[in-house]
């Protein structure tokens, strides 16, 4: 879980987001746009 993370882009600034498949790029963008719903997770062993 992530907490206390900040991210800022100035008006007119272009920012790239790179990472391998499955690394959470789309999830990060969904969180920034406020469309990611909060889910409860459970670790299964």
TrEMBL record:
Residues 2-36 form the ABC transporter domain. InterPro entries: ABC_transporter-like_ATP-bd (IPR003439), P-loop_NTPase (IPR027417). The keyword Nucleotide-binding applies. It comes from the Bacteria. Keywords: ATP-binding, Nucleotide-binding. GO terms for molecular function: ATP binding; ATP hydrolysis activity. This is ATP-binding cassette domain-containing protein.
